[in-house]
Specification:
The complex is a heterotrimer. Chain A is mainly beta. Helices cover 3% and strands 56% of the residues of chain A. Chain A is built from 2 helices and 21 strands. The radius of gyration of chain A is 24 Å and the shape is elongated. Chain B has a 5-stranded mixed sheet with strand order 5-4-3-6-7, covered by helices on one side. Chain C is mainly α. Chain C has a domain of 30 residues. The longest helix of chain C is centred in the C-terminal third of the chain and has 14 residues. The chains are: A mainly beta, B alpha/beta, C mainly alpha. Chains A and C meet through helix 1, strand 1, strand 2, strand 6 and strand 7 of A and helix 1 and helix 2 of C.
């Protein structure tokens, strides 16, 4: 999961309107500036139609510890429940699935997209130290950790910023690494293993907690330039590269095995490569009109799994009465499928080394419409509410669908609603 | 004897360097090599503010704006300086660079200033003084020469500035 | 395949050196406003990054800072 050191970086990048050291202090707040604390408390409600629901309270704290030094603290708790697609395609008969260890099964009625129920809680914490190094540089160091039923992560990050050109240009370099371990509930399957070959354990045997020992290492680096263009415009270009290695497969997902009539006869547990090289180019501009502010961002992403994605994101903040605002949001993202992505596997074809039917690795378009309303509270605080509608779609009727498959939507559209309420206060 | 001389030299090196710095601040080795400060006349709160009219005083010109946080922090210090050294001939001129009077008025209603305020909304005087950051201050001696300049405001360096001001005030 | 994005990046890197009249320190009033930060709302940005990381194949671009979840 991508957390954001850029959240603190951007303060420094506000282009040091002030002092030799004062870049970050400038952005503490337009009013006051004597406040030592900034608190953001928020609750997110996320709901995929007929699928997963997440409720997530979040607390961000920032303490000013010195003239230009800060400590950021982040605590997130989320509860997830519902069902997510397991990668199998709908077919004309009911379907039964089993976990990799054979200890649990679940079923899907005929004609329905197979979903796997789950319920999980996650806690994540992060701390960051943000301070000046000399009169033109800053350093930000971070540590983060998270835990959930079947997953644990710990990571470190370091970022350095340096200003040039009378503080109109800032160069940023950052690196991070995290070590994640997965303990799949129901065990980690053998890659591409046929579900029909799973043997349930003898009665009184192992519990459902599954084995541990599946780990991955994720490293990332970024280099970026932020430039003040005019009194009204600020822009940023970043190049990022990341490398993940280890267990990158989703242990709960399967790929349907079909016969020549298109009927599902078995399933194989999915398998993804054990390395992934990711790169992106990111560009963002903030522009200040007379009162309103617009942010526009574009990202081009590509990786060695064959995924290429274009993402464009627009926020337009319309100032209403003093301090209150309305901000529409538009986001459009489109990606190509991973080269091992497939809707299903034909039983007569050779078994590939890697295959996944996870829609998130498929040819996918995501469209978001959102609206946010912010209202000031007193002199130094704000409450805001935002609502977003996210639609994800792909080709449900591919040309190479076989027989019975043609009767079903193999890539159902997923609609998600997001509601988030946040209180931001400065003390 | 030799060892302790060396040791005592090392121990006293820092205050000695500070003393040297003080001497050089007080004498004529300023950043601008005794450059004459650019004359200006700007609107003030009640009447125009003219630099040439202040010849004979030690003038501390500070360029500030309402949106600049370190500027907010520098005002109590400047107020205190002005109060304590006014009778010795110190005049602090705080040149405001806000685009509208409303913004600076709002600031001054929250952070009162017992200083001379001058308004330079188009930044003409700031340009003439080649202001490089906010805030920027220029210490001008009684003969109208720029003695030193400083970008930014920090509590630590403020003390050094006060030492330099006191030294200039000694000169007739 | 790499040449094109790299070319674009290099052109963009040349940007600071070029043409536009440098913005004077006293003209940075608008840029100082909180809503002009590149990430004006860190909580919203964090949540959105997490949402799209778990729903799409592409991720990142804005910064580093690890944190895994079992969501992708």
């Amino acid at each position: 999961m991508q957390l954001n050191d850029k959240a603190s970086i951007r303060r420094a990048l506000a282009a040091a309107t002030c002092t030799l050291l004062g870049s970050a202090s400038q952005t503490s707040h337009a009013e006051g500036g004597d406040e030592k604390w900034r608190v953001d408390t928020s609750v997110l409600y996320y709901s995929e139609q007929d699928r997963v629901t997440v409720v997530e309270p979040v607390v961000f704290l920032r303490k000013t510890t010195g003239e230009d030094s800060f400590v950021n603290f982040r605590l997130i708790y989320d509860t997830m429940s519902g069902a997510s697609a397991n990668g199998a395609t709908p077919t004309n008969t009911p379907q039964t699935f089993t976990s990799a260890s054979g200890t649990s099964t679940y079923t899907t009625p005929a004609g329905k997209i197979p979903l796997h129920d789950f319920s999980d809680q996650r806690v994540a914490v992060a701390v960051e130290w943000d301070k000046p190094v000399d009169h033109l540089s800053r350093a930000i160091y971070g540590i983060n950790a998270s835990t959930e039923n079947d997953y644990r992560s710990i990571g470190l990050s370091a970022t350095r910023l340096r200003e040039f050109n009378n503080k109109l240009t800032t160069l940023t370099i950052g690196i991070s690494g995290s070590y994640d371990s997965v303990m799949p509930i129901g065990g980690a399957p053998t890659p591409m293993q046929l579900m029909s070959s799973v043997v349930p354990p003898p009665p009184g045997g192992e519990d459902d907690e599954g084995e541990s020992g599946k780990t991955k290492l994720v490293t990332d680096a970024i280099v970026g330039i932020t430039q003040v263009l005019t009194r009204r415009a600020l822009t940023q270009f970043n190049y990022s590269i990341g490398y993940s290695s280890g267990y990158l497969t989703d242990p709960y997902k399967v790929v349907s095995v079909i016969d020549a009539t298109g009927a599902t006869i078995d399933y194989r547990f999915e398998s993804r490569p054990d390395t992934r090289l990711r790169q992106s180019l990111y560009w963002k501009t903030a522009y200040h009109f007379d009162h309103d502010v617009m942010h526009f961002a574009y990202r081009y992403y590509w990786d060695d799994w064959g995924i290429h994605a274009h993402t464009a994101d627009l926020h337009y903040r319309m100032e209403l009465w003093k301090g209150a605002y309305l901000q529409p949001h538009l986001r459009y993202s489109t990606q190509t499928a991973a080269n091992f992505y497939t809707y299903s596997l034909l039983n007569s074809s050779p078994v590939p080394a890697y295959a996944s039917a996870d829609y998130r690795l498929g040819e996918l378009t995501t469209t978001t419409y959102g609206l946010k309303l912010g209202v000031p509270v007193g002199r130094t605080s704000e409450i805001n509410l935002r609502v977003e509608s996210i639609t994800q779609s792909g080709n449900g009727y591919p040309a190479d669908a076989i027989g019975i498959q043609k009767n079903y939507d193999l890539f159902p559209t997923i609609n998600t609603t997001v509601v988030q309420i946040t209180y931001t206060g400065h003390f | 004897m030799q060892a302790s001389t060396v040791l005592s030299k090392r121990i006293t090196a820092r205050p000695f360097l500070r003393y040297l710095l003080l001497i050089s601040l007080a004498t004529a080795t300023p950043v601008f090599a005794a450059e004459q400060a650019q004359a200006f006349t700007l609107p003030g709160r009640d009447q125009p503010v003219s630099l040439t009219a202040l010849r004979g005083k030690v003038v501390y010109v500070d360029f500030w704006a309402s949106w600049c946080i370190p500027c907010r922090k520098s005002f109590p210090w400047m107020n205190s300086l002005q109060k304590r050294y006014a009778d010795q001939g110190l005049v602090i001129v705080a040149v405001n660079l806000d685009k509208t009077r409303e913004l600076s008025d709002h600031f001054l209603s929250e952070v009162p200033a017992e200083l001379t305020i001058a308004y330079d909304p188009e930044g003409k005087v700031a340009s003439a003084y080649k202001v490089k950051g906010m805030p920027s201050s220029y210490l001008i001696d009684r003969a109208g020469r720029i003695h030193s300049s400083h970008i930014g405001f920090r509590e630590e360096t403020a003390a050094d500035m006060e030492v330099a001001i006191k030294a200039l005030l000694q000169h007739p | 395949m790499l040449a094109r994005p790299l070319f674009i990046l290099l052109t963009l890197l040349a940007l600071p050196a070029c043409t536009l009249t440098p913005v004077q320190p006293w003209d940075r009033d608008l840029l100082a406003e909180e809503k002009m930060q590149l990430i004006p709302d860190p909580v919203e940005n964090f949540i959105d990054e997490h949402i799209y990381f778990s729903k799409e194949g592409a991720s990142g671009g804005q910064g580093v800072g690890g944190g895994g979840c079992g969501c992708n």
